[in-house]
Amino acid sequence: MYGLLISIGVILLILVIWMVYRIQTLISVAKGSDKKIATTSNKVNAFLMMVFLIGCGVLMFWYSIKEFDNYQMPIASEHGIITDRLFWITMAVTGFIFILTHILLFWFSYHYQYRDDRRAAYYPDNNKLEIIWTLVPAVVLTVLVVSGWKAWSDITAPAPEEAHVVEIMGYQFAWDIRYGGMDNTLGDYDYRLTNATNSRGIDFTDKNSFDDFPSQNVVIPKGEPVLFKIRARDVLHSVFAPHMRLKMDAVPGMPTRFWFVPNKTTEEMRTELGDEEFEFEIACTEVCGNGHFSMRKVIRVVEPDEYRTWLAEQTPFIKSNPDLVADLPADLKELAEIYINEE
Amino acid sequence: MAVANVSAHDVSNHDHHDHEHKDNFITKYIFSTDHKMIAKQYLISGMFWAFIGGFLSVLFRLQLGFPDMDLSFLRPLLGGWIDASGKLDPNFYLALVTMHGTIMVFFVLTAGLSGTFSNFLIPLQIGARDMASGFMNMLSYWFFFISGVIMFASLFLEKGPAAGGWVVYPPLSALEQAIPGSGLGMTLWLIAMTFFIASSLMGGINYITTVINLRTRGMSFSRLPLTIWAFFLTAVIGLLSFPVLFSAALLLVFDRSFGTSFYLSDIYIGGEALPNTGGSAVLYQHLFWFLGHPEVYIVLLPALGITSEIIATNSRKPIFGYKAMIISMLGITILSFVVWAHHMFVSGLNPFLGSIFMFLTLIIAVPSAVKVFNYLTTLWRGNLRFTPGMLFSIGLVSFFISGGLTGIFLGNSAIDIQLHDTYFVVAHFHLVMGSASFFGMMAGVYHWFPKMFGRMMDEKLGHVHFWLTFVGVYMVFFPMHYIGIAGFPRRYYSWTNFSFSDMYTDLNMFVSVAAIVTFVAQFIFIFNFFYSMYKGRKASLNPWQSNTLEWTTPLHPGHGNWPGEIPAVYRWPYDYSKPGAREDFIQQTVPLSATPESNLPHENKLVQLEKEIMAEEGDVLVANESKES
Asked: N or C: which end of chain B has fewer CB within 10 A?
């Protein structure tokens, strides 16, 4: 009902304003002042330009400072520190230009409002000025681009050999997690093998898949490189881990990847924020259907030791469901049995 | 200014005009081939679509700002899309954002803006009787109309209109199993867009041909108003990029209906593995953004052109750096084709390709910056008249700066990792492309209304409309930067599932209220527009004391625009406040030889040449007349 009430209120307000203006117009026609250019309304508009500049400027500074801790999200990855620094450097540069150009825009509008006794300057061009304000932005942008490019190259460089591999598969409307087991190598998959018991389409004729195991959450060690191998089963999704400053689309038919080094454990973050409930989260940022807004997955960042303990405790797919390897050829099956019977 | 109005014949001459012929209602208002009527058709259609598009945004802003609100009162309108507990259906929410985007980008800011002002101003400002092909121009409008009817019909489908975002990325848009909107809704979307593309191509060919071939005597490219330069380059961009969207759409049609695998690969959905392999979803994104990015400039350049003209006129000053403005627009035109993949930094694109596109993208910021500085210098030491058109133009410059600067963040691929598909992007493009272009369109309507309808719009209502809209737009989109930096993803029905985004309910509520107020404020304009059309004060021939050719036509220009000879052009369009001149403007039709008091040194040299040409032309005219009689 709020919307409707507000609308009605606004409409009434507009009607009142309009009547006042009609009356004013009629009066000005009667007085013959409608031919004037330097009218009161010209002055009012010029004045409002300054009001807008100062009013909105104050509002912007006040809100930006007051809310800083709210919108500035804590960083939990090493590259995130770099990209955030770039962000704030860019903010400083563009913020300066933003404020400068707006002061000029509204100040000129106010200061050079129409006066009958003045004539505008005939000032059609000045090549020197044009060159200056072509070169200066070009140089500033080059600096920004080059620093961004360096960061981008580092972030997208191939993952280190020892990176812990985690497979994240998006589907409508959740993420499935798979680890490569003790050998840190994921088994092959083929989407045609997908069924109710094998939601990831893992190909169990590949020996590497024998020790692969699922996980409810993404569990990763602090301070060691982690490689997300990202894929999608049905439509596009996008893995977004805001605290890690990480985002990569999940594309059916085209595996993607993103590696990073988490630098804060969940526990550390909880202490830092004073929030016992805090979790690192993954969200989906590529529209994928009606459950797009609910694809939540928790990332648990732990100390390396704790990670290794956790890793050793996990149960491979084939151990929790030996039927998965029931149809394998004899030699492979024998090998699989070893994994299944392992304590 | 008696000399200036060489062509302002009195009305009695009008009847003897060669091109005058009787129109009936259908040929005059419906299947008209007159560029002015087609422009008005585009304008009215654009306004209709802006209303629909704006209304859809109010609906989803209600959901985002007031997630707990009981929306049952919308059930008479939305029916089953409001569920039993008064909540908006999440599928329909996606359909709303999709249709809002499609309608605003294509139907309002492409057809409504270019269609209106390219059609209206090109012949009038270059001194032509009409478009190169009046018939094709009419066809262009009616293709757009059909496209609109189909798109409008899709809003009422049982399963809803297309809902995969305005970019309609496959596989979501290709598979009905994935989302209901990808059924018939998506089919109609594709058909509508096909008609739309055909319409823009026909329009574009016309604009280009007309500007190249039908300029009046003396109207060299270096004397074209910047509006015409902008429309011309816009048409070039459209002509080169829209066919690529068509191919993207065509391949999508094949994938959807004929079992091909251009975009589809390795998909398991609805409990079955689809047979498609080998396709690439990223291919679609490349094709789409090859139009999609130039499209930004298709909607923006005309607005910038209109603004250049209006700011110069109302500052009573020549536009600063006329040549630099043209060079920047040329630069933007070319660069707009080589930056498309900056929409795809995290799509799985090769990171090396990402770096290339980052460099190219940030280059395009340079000509944009030049334009801004030129606007500011034009205002500097001007004598500003705050007509509504001028106010909206100043508003445009402000949005262009605000939204343009955030583009520097997003064009930097390292920073884009975090910001991509968050509300920061929403804030960015709504300011730089949406609101800036919308303001350009508004400025144009206020400025050329007297030429379109022979009456003035109410100026004070215009001022109120401007201030409510200007403040409103900032109140809607500025807070979105904070929401975006905080990581809120786009196209989310609700943010409460995540602890990082389970906040800012107050800010979202504020944005929604601002959006509703801004939307309602547009009714001031609608009222002003239709009221002034019939009851507005009669306009004078040149109400803004402007230099360009359209103000030398009669108050209600007939078919053919000028009774008698088309006026010749002797100077550039920006001779405002020229030192020595008595008035603060000299129209393009005034020969240099008539203004010895204000000519610049190099212009004095041209006077002799001009006289020779006039003498020659005089001979030709005499010869022609004696031949006819």
From this structure: C
